[in-house]
Design brief:
Elements: E1 3-10, E2 15-22, E3 27-32, H1 41-44, H2 47-50, H3 52-56, E4 60-65, H4 80-109, E5 117-122, H5 124-135, E6 140-146, H6 163-167, H7 170-176, H8 182-188, E7 191-196, H9 205-218, E8 224-227, H10 236-250
Parallel strand pairs: 3-4, 3-5, 5-6, 6-7, 7-8
Antiparallel strand pairs: 1-2, 2-4
Helix pairs in contact: 7-9
Length: 251
């Protein structure tokens, strides 16, 4: 398997950011780590090995990025506004600095053919995956979001809301989006996949996934929202089964 490591400076975050690329060609998939995670966690938890047949066959090229969750969603010791501003800076890093590199690497890997990117993540990674997919349907072809929270006010205990928290909370902005917004038509052309188990540690992910299903239904967005069994818990063994199942549908 071809593996490459990158470390580049982000002007939005004022620091070096790292990511790894797995594979020599195929559909590009941007992977966000679990809460407070690092770019190498997906590999360390065995997910790369689990999906190696997709990568080795040239069907999939995986891009695993770092998070800054310790300064945003997890940082309840910081002022709320500082947290949301840092999250928006992370959004800009991904879209304005990381995505162009992904496009360049993947296009060169696919003989000049440029294609939209899928997003993926588990737990908090799923929260990022759906948010980026929905905020930039011009960039992202779809997502595979596994066991995510999609109402980001969950991480703010005092009922705080500002325009940046709203912009990064899918339940808030999809609920507030008019049915004739031009993004709605773009969502209908995406391949949006959201999955959650109904077993241990899957609350409030079950509730948020249920709400996203309702909101997509109200707006006629044909997302695939899948609820797995009561034995399916919030943990890597199940995410390994889910990612293989869903990847087989998109690449």
């Amino acid at each position: 398997m071809k593996i490459e490591y990158y470390k580049t400076y982000s002007s939005y975050l004022n620091r070096d950011m790292e990511f790894k690329v797995y594979g020599h060609s195929g559909v590009p998939m941007l992977v966000f780590p679990c809460q407070d995670g690092r770019f190498f966690d997906y590999e360390d938890q065995g997910m790369i090995n689990t999906i190696s047949s997709f990568i080795d066959s040239g069907r999939l090229q995986v891009f695993c990025v770092d998070s800054i969750d310790k300064e945003t969603w997890s940082a309840n010791y910081l002022p709320n506004r500082e947290r949301t501003e840092k999250q928006e800076a992370y959004y800009n890093y991904i879209c304005e600095e990381c995505v162009p590199m992904i496009f360049d690497i993947n296009t060169n890997s696919n003989n000049g053919y440029r294609q939209k990117i899928y997003t993926n993540g588990c737990s908090m990674g799923a929260s990022h995956a759906l948010n980026f997919c929905l905020r930039r349907p011009d960039i992202f072809a779809g997502c595979i979001a596994l066991s995510g929270v999609y109402d980001m006010t969950y991480f703010f205990s005092d009922g705080y809301m500002d325009e940046l928290l709203y912009a990064n909370s899918p339940i808030a902005y999809i609920n507030g989006m008019s049915n004739d917004h031009y993004y709605v038509d773009m969502y209908r052309n995406q391949n949006i996949i959201i999955c959650v188990g109904q077993g241990a540690w899957e609350h409030p992910m079950i509730e948020d996934t249920t709400r996203m299903k309702e909101l997509f239904g109200y707006k006629g967005i044909n997302a695939w929202v899948d609820f797995w069994g009561f034995d399916v818990c919030h943990d890597w063994p199940w995410w390994k089964i889910q990612i293989v199942y869903f990847l087989d549908k998109i690449c």
